Amino acid sequence: MKQFGFRIADSDPRIDAPVAAVAPADTIDVSRILGAVRRQRRVMMISCAIGLCLGLVYLATTPKTFVANSTVLLAGKVNRTIEEVSAIDSSASENALESAQEVIRSQPVALAVTDMLKLTENESFLNRPVPLLATVVNGVKEVVRAPIRLITPSTPSGPAGPPPTPEQIEQRKRQLVADSLAAKINVMRVGRSSVFQISYASHDPALAASVANAYAEAYVSDLLNANYDATERTTEWLRERLEALQSQAREAAVEAEIFRAENNLVSTRGALITEENVSKLNDDLAAAMTEAARAQALMSTYQEILDRGPEAFLSERSSGFSLQGNDRLIEMQDQLSGLSARLDRIERDFGEDHPQAVRLREQVSAQINVLFGEVRRLHEEARGSYNVASAQVQALRESLGLAVDVNSEAGRKQVQLKSLEQRAETLQTLYQTFLTRFQEIDQQKSFPISNVRILAHADVPLTPAGPSTMRVLAVMLVLGGMAGAAIGALREWRDRFLRTGEDVQNDVGQRFLGYLPHFDAANGAPQLSRQARNAPLKLNEPVPGLPVVRKPIHALQHPRSHYAETLRNIRFSSEVSLAGKSQIVMGITSIRPGEGKSSVALNLAAVMAASGNSVLLIDTDPRNPGLSRRLGLTRGVGLVEAALGRADWTKALRVIGDSGVHLLPCITPGMMTHSSEMLGSKGMRQLLAAARARYSHVILDLAPLGPVVDARVVVPMVDQVVMVAEWGKTPKALLRETLMNEPALMEKTLGVVLNKVDMESLRDYVPQTGGEHYYEEYGDYFSGRSGTS
């Protein structure tokens, strides 16, 4: 599958640039996604099966869990009397509801339930079954922690203390049981109401119901005890406070009477005789001072305008002055602003010398003088008003001073007396209020009221709440599918091998020559069972005098197969690209060893010979002559002796069965170390020239590319090179980089043929609209068994 859109032809001048096309939109190709799913279906199915197996193991090793639920209702008030005394709002607000949940989960309630059910002696609670998954997780944690403990320095321990007493051990056990119980209790608010559901899960249904009910009862008891304790503390505080208030009220009343008698303070209607006179003088003085301040402020405003002079109106005519409160001045100021605006417009449009502009300037100047005169008049009026108000303030101050002097001493004493009387009255009122509340609380102390009641007790659950078989299997199936999808995505991402013709054209930048289906070379049986298996055709009579090599050739045994048609396509492409050339030397090579280049060379030579051409097949791989060994030729002379001039190359020829293909083998007794020098020698070039003159097609089975230089030496002597790539094994980047680094090889490359193709799996790597999906339909067509076309 294509992973990245490498634009080789756009980045390297050695590859012909493709025709510019409109960039595809950023859309999701569903067909490619479905193809990836089809390719990875086995991985996903195996992953889902493993997930289901793990789910079954989890269900088989996990004990059933029973959940019991009890419900309690939290009302609106905790204690009405205490609330009224303390003035604290204890309504069932959101904060109160949250606090109630924390109280249920608190340690005192857990300890109360522990004692109520005697959980420290309950074997069902203490020896709970452990699921296999928890055992595995704990084992993994221990394995991880073991090396950490080894490298972590241990903390030096102090001197050992005295051993714990049995009471301390029992208390510690009780504490641990309560902590474990509190960690497993679940408190949930029902909707937006004040109802709470207390849930407890256990493998023992009876224990689950007992714990849920005990928690509800313990919570009610805890609130009753808390209310009683609060009432007791409130009563004690009120008692102490009443004693203090009673003493303070008595002392304040005595102090007020003593002060009245010592200072001979007699009042009428609760006030001294001179107090009304002083109050009236104070009111008159305040009014006079207000009038004087207003007159002074107005006079200052007018004085500021006068200090600026008439030029101020002329220089600041656009803004004017703040004359709020005088309608006449405001009207005159508006007229001045209007004249100024008209003057500015006339000067801007017609110039300063325009008659109308001169007339308007005169009107503006006259208006400024009138406005200035009016301000001067108002300033004099304000001055007079200020002098009158100042004299009145001075007179009232003198009168008030005389009245205050007369009654100052009596007033101060009266004020002190009033303060003493008010203090005594306040203390007496507070004492009476606290006394009333104390009596109410003392009466209700014997029957405290709780705001919580149990709505429903928990019943012993008959059916387990978990683990749910369907839910666990569904979750494990989904997790298995997700894991399979992740593994499949990773496999797709790592799949960077040639699989389709689109990969060859887009990622390598070469012509695609076709697919060669995989077949068993041992018996020549084709992979596709639907393809025809016609009897071999007898093409040519054996050549007298040439040794015959008996070896079945797949393309001749199945001439109407997809394999043979692909080889014919290579022959046709070669003849078209070298139009007008009668003798052709073609090299067959690959990037890596074992990609089937020798088999392709043998079958291609047979197909060319079957079309009436004279074909010579030369094994040109001295290091590893796989073609010669495949044909069983291990002795005699061959290419090496002919290229070195030690033997006539025509004497070393063989003929392959009745295919008509002449073969020049390469027989080497051992590893040849100087094969590149031999292939590049003068004798080799003369041999190829003589073969070109004698045969119409000379096919060279070259050594694989890569680090081996043998094939590169022979490339200048050939007309064309066919690259053989193994389907799903040849990396795209390796083939592309090899061709890019060899300009001479790229120039002579006819194209790339994909060998050993799994035709069934190929359909998973191409879009639904690709032609590869219809190759299956050509099986009967190749065999000639199809109906009317």
Describe the structure.
The protein is an alpha/beta fold. The chain is built from 28 helices and 13 strands. A nine-stranded mixed β-sheet has the order 5-13-12-7-11-8-10-9-6, with helices on both faces. The radius of gyration is 56 Å and the shape is flat. The two termini are 34 Å apart. Residues 588-760 form the CobQ/CobB/MinD/ParA nucleotide binding domain. This is Chromosome partitioning protein ParA. Residues 228-298, 410-437 form a coiled coil.
Question: Topology, please?
Answer:
Layout: H1 8-11, H2 30-39, H3 41-61, E1 66-74, H4 80-86, H5 94-104, H6 107-117, H7 123-126, H8 132-151, H9 166-184, E2 186-189, E3 195-202, H10 205-263, H11 275-308, H12 310-315, H13 327-350, H14 355-444, E4 452-456, H15 469-494, H16 501-508, E5 512-517, E6 548-549, H17 554-557, H18 562-577, E7 584-590, H19 597-610, E8 615-620, H20 626-630, H21 639-643, E9 654-656, E10 661-664, H22 675-679, H23 682-694, E11 697-702, H24 710-714, E12 720-726, H25 732-740, H26 743-748, E13 749-757, H27 759-762, H28 778-783
Parallel strand pairs: 5-13, 6-9, 7-11, 7-12, 8-10, 8-11, 12-13
Antiparallel strand pairs: 1-3, 1-4, 2-3, 9-10
Protein name: Chromosome partitioning protein ParA
Transmembrane segments: 43-61
Pfam family, one: GNVR
